[in-house]
């Protein structure tokens, strides 16, 4: 069974059919297990936290029981899934690609041989070779014929077809059977529609116009000027079946402009009534190429620089690259909205496409959302449902899955998003959109904080798709973080990210420099000092964005009426809660204290049910204190760079002392501080020294050279020998930054 | 709980809120994953059971947070927050 396949199985106890989407059911099993896991972990936390306070441990015990019940449900569902997968026996795949297509004219099947000869202009979509259609193709064609009227062609024309017919579960043919033809056809489609050969036979035969009429017929819409034909099928089930098999078809045929141009009930050319596809898009995973084409038709081609396209075997993207004669058929606003939502949700499920579409339109989405917030008396804003769908799309484009599937597109989207939010200013963005920025910030946590704490800006590794993010100004990341925090949703998660980045950085550095202090005599500094400074800086970066967000909320709080004050008072309270947990000197402690925060829906519920117009005084005081504390370490990066270069320049009179460490892999390595001897300069590509042996300015280096330069600056040889780190710390103290020499410089790191 | 150190009660409240958030997020994931996974009478029965379990979990946590909050507020004004600590200050 294909991964996206749906199976119809009979439950063992009776004739009741259960329709199962294995992919989604697997997701459901995972979600149920995740709840069980959250409950068990929560129970442990509660019991540990409540016992010292003398409270009852009954809630914890109840959570344990509920977790077990959720686990039992997950097991039950997994059994169901396994049964469905065992019961589903698909047809053997067709031997080769389906071959020939005929056209349905006016719901009457014109046999293939006659089509070319008798129907003027009847298009033959594909005629790839002279091979006979496979059994699956013939069976699919027969199912299509059942729908549009007439006896199965197979019975008359194809010697292979009777077998296929029996295998498809219609012993004795369909003539005279009780089941009406459309129902029988849909039953066949439900059972075999995802078999590529069958789907090809079915949709090749039906053609785009036939498909348009079939969809309209199922929905009970009139076809042209004629009333709706009654097919006598259950609409929802029929659309689901059609959607899944159409998805299979879209993956084996390039449904190009020519095909889309005939997708209308009136039999016109060059008029794509794409809105008809609405119910199909939700039911199955349509090919990425078709989704991309539909997106360009619906939302326009790329804005700005062309976005990298998805993997494409059928010329996708052509619609955007050359002028198209395609017009989209007019449709009502509600139908249009439903179509756009279905299309955006389908794109959202495709990690290889979602980033390209999100990157293409992120600026418009922000602009339209901001205009919408103005409440103008003209209809310039998106429908709420469409805007929500865009928010979901933006969130999905930031997910790790999208980054894994499309590394370059994902990084491109993240960069454009940060720049667009920075340029837009962010006032008036809807909370759902602010929450949709969270995944990008979470996924690119390391890159963002690397950039924010870099000793020198600029790219360092041309081979890494995410390296381009280092060209985004740090201010743009701060804007994105600020606008995200301004919504209040999941603020805790973002603060945890900053803390976790610091914790990881320090741990990695400690792992790489084990045993550094075993030599007698000691060094001016620990080789871990720099990672401590960077970890603290990452938290300062987050704290700065947090207080900026709070300031913006305070401004709105003062400007808005009571209805808004309640929401903003609550957001301030949430940001204050996060601020309370931040200890700039202690990323690990910060991480342990922080929860992930509240979702947008959670905030809405809180605003509705729990909060009146609360005083924000307490939260403001906390945030003011955080602003005061996070002002620290001005120019620390430049200060460190200068000190390291001085250290190198004076090596003649003050030789650097080698630092011996045990690395991750357990091997002993000695850092002399010389970039060549230590392996940072391996050739001209990584050589960042000038003729006199001094490092050139970071801004003049190539990315590879800059990467080597920064790695050298952060290496134990240079950090441990840095006698000016003390001065740097002292300067920081003078600026009330309070970097404590005892903490930053103590030999144990 | 009112005779016990305030810190323990405040920690319990923070823990309860954190657990409530984590479980709420997991339940939201469940709601999102549930739609369209399967159809039929058995699916509805199973969905009903999951809904009841989710409501029970939410009620347990809601009650727990409320009781902790009541205990915390009974102990008087809060101590100054940790956020005011600067880098490296030892208090």
Provide a descriptive summary of the structure in words.
The complex is a heterodimer of chains A (749) and B (91). Chain A is 58% helix and 3% strand. Chain A is built from 33 helices and eight strands. Chain A has a two-stranded antiparallel ribbon. Chain A starts with 6 loop residues before the first strand and ends with a helix. Chain B has one domain. In chain B, helix 1 runs antiparallel to helix 2. The radius of gyration of chain B is 19 Å and the shape is elongated. In chain B, 42% of the residues are buried. Classes of the chains: A mainly alpha (749), B mainly alpha (91). Chains A and B meet through strand 2, helix 1, helix 2, helix 25 and helix 28 of A and helix 1, strand 1 and helix 2 of B. Strand 2 of chain A pairs antiparallel with strand 1 of chain B.
Largest sheet of chain B: none
Termini of chain B, distance in Å?
27 Å
Coarse structural class of chain A = mainly alpha
> How many runs of DSSP E, i.e. beta strands of chain B?
1
Order of helices and strands of chain B: HEH
Low-confidence stretches of chain B: 79-91
How much of the sequence lies in strands of chain B comes to under 5%
Can you list the strand order of the major beta sheet of chain A?
1-2
How much is the radius of gyration of chain A in Å?
32 Å
Write the layout of secondary structure elements.
The complex is a heterodimer of chains A (749) and B (91).
Chain A (H helix, E strand, L loop, with lengths): L6 E4 L6 E4 L1 H29 L7 H30 L16 E2 L2 E2 L2 H7 L16 H14 L4 H5 L3 H7 L13 H12 L3 H24 L15 H18 L4 H5 L9 E2 L5 H6 L4 H12 L18 H4 L5 E2 L4 H16 L2 H23 L10 H14 L2 H6 L1 H18 L6 H6 L1 H6 L1 H8 L21 H13 L4 H22 L16 H31 L2 H20 L5 H7 L6 H10 L7 H13 L6 H14 L9 E4 L5 E4 L31 H11 L2 H5 L4 H10 L6 H5 L4
Parallel strand pairs in A: 5-6
Antiparallel strand pairs in A: 1-2, 3-4, 7-8
Helix pairs in contact in A: 1-2, 4-6, 4-7, 4-8, 7-9, 8-9, 12-14, 12-15, 14-16, 15-16, 15-18, 18-22, 22-24, 23-24, 23-26, 24-25, 24-28, 25-27, 25-28
Chain B lengths: L5 H29 L3 E2 L1 H33 L18
């Amino acid at each position: 069974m294909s991964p996206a396949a749906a199976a119809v199985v009979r439950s063992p106890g009776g004739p009741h059919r259960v329709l199962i989407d294995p992919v989604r059911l697997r997701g459901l099993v995972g979600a149920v297990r995740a709840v069980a896991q959250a409950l068990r972990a929560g129970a442990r936390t509660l019991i540990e936290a409540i016992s010292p306070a003398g409270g009852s441990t009954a809630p914890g015990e109840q959570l344990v029981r509920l977790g077990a019940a959720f686990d039992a449900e997950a097991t039950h569902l997994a059994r169901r899934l396994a049964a469905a997968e065992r019961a589903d026996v698909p047809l053997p795949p067709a031997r080769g690609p389906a071959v020939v297509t005929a056209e349905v004219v006016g719901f009457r099947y014109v046999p293939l041989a006659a089509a070319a000869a008798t129907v003027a202009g009847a298009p033959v979509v594909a005629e790839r070779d002279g091979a006979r259609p496979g059994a699956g193709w013939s069976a699919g064609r027969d199912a299509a014929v059942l729908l549009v009227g007439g006896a199965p062609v197979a019975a008359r024309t194809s010697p292979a077809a009777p077998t296929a017919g029996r295998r498809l579960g219609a012993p004795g043919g369909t003539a005279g059977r009780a089941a009406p033809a459309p129902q029988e056809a849909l039953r066949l489609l439900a059972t075999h529609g995802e078999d590529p050969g069958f789907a090809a036979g079915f949709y090749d035969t039906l053609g785009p116009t036939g498909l348009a009429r079939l969809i309209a017929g199922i929905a009970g819409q009139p076809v042209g000027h004629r009333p709706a034909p009654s097919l006598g099928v259950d609409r929802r089930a029929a659309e689901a079946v059609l959607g899944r098999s159409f998805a299979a078809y879209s993956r084996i045929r390039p449904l190009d402009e020519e095909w889309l141009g005939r997708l209308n009930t009136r039999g016109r050319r060059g008029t794509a009534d794409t809105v008809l596809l609405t119910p199909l898009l939700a039911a199955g995973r349509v090919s990425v190429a078709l989704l991309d084409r539909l997106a360009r038709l619906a939302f326009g081609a790329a804005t700005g620089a062309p976005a990298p396209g998805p993997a494409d075997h059928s010329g996708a993207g052509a619609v955007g690259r050359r002028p198209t004669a395609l017009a989209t058929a007019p449709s009502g606003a509600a139908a249009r909205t439903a179509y756009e939502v279905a299309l955006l949700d389908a794109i959202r499920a495709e990690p290889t496409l979602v980033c390209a579409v999100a990157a293409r339109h992120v600026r418009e989405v922000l602009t339209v959302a901001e205009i919408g917030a103005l409440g103008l008396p003209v209809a310039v804003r998106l429908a709420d449902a469409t805007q929500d769908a865009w928010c979901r799309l933006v969130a999905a484009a930031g997910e790790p899955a999208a980054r894994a599937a499309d590394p370059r597109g994902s990084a491109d989207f993240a960069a454009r998003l940060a720049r667009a939010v920075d340029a837009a200013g962010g006032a008036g963005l809807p909370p759902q959109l602010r929450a949709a920025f969270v995944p990008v910030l979470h996924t690119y946590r390391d890159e963002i904080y690397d950039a924010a704490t870099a000793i020198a800006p600029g790219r360092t590794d041309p081979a890494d798709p995410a390296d381009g993010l280092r060209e985004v100004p740090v201010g743009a990341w701060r804007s994105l973080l600020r606008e995200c925090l301004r919504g209040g949703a999941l603020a805790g998660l973002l603060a945890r990210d900053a803390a976790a980045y610091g914790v990881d950085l320090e741990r990695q550095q400690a792992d790489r420099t084990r045993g550094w202090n075993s030599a007698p005599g000691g060094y001016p500094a620990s080789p871990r000092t720099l990672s401590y400074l960077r970890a603290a800086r990452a938290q300062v970066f987050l704290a700065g964005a947090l207080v900026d967000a709070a300031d913006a909320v305070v401004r709105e709080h003062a400007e808005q009426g009571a209805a808004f004050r309640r929401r903003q008072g609550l957001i301030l309270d949430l940001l204050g809660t996060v601020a309370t947990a931040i200890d700039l000197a202690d990323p690990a402690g910060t991480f342990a204290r922080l929860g992930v925060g509240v979702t947008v829906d959670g905030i809405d519920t809180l605003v509705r049910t729990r909060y009146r117009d609360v005083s924000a005084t307490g939260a403001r005081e906390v945030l003011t204190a955080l602003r005061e504390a996070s002002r620290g370490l001005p120019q620390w990066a430049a200060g460190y760079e200068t000190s390291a270069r001085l250290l190198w320049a004076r090596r003649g009179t003050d030789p650097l002392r080698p630092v011996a460490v045990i690395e991750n892999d357990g091997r002993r390595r000695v850092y002399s501080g010389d970039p060549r001897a230590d392996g940072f300069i391996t050739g001209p590509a990584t050589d960042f020294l000038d003729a006199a042996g001094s490092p050139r300015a970071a801004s003049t280096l190539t990315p590879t050279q800059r990467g080597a330069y920064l790695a050298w600056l952060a290496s134990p040889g240079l950090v441990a020998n840095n006698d000016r780190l003390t001065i740097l710390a002292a300067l920081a103290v003078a600026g009330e930054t309070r970097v404590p020499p005892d903490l930053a410089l103590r030999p144990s790191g | 709980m009112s005779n016990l150190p305030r810190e323990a009660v405040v920690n319990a409240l923070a823990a309860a809120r954190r657990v409530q958030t984590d479980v709420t997020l997991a339940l939201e994931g469940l709601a999102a994953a549930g739609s369209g996974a399967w159809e039929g009478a058995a699916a509805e029965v199973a969905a009903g059971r999951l809904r009841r379990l989710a409501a029970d979990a939410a009620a347990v946590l809601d009650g727990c947070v409320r009781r902790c909050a009541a205990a915390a507020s009974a102990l008087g004004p809060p101590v100054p927050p940790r956020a005011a600590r600067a880098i490296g200050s030892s208090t």
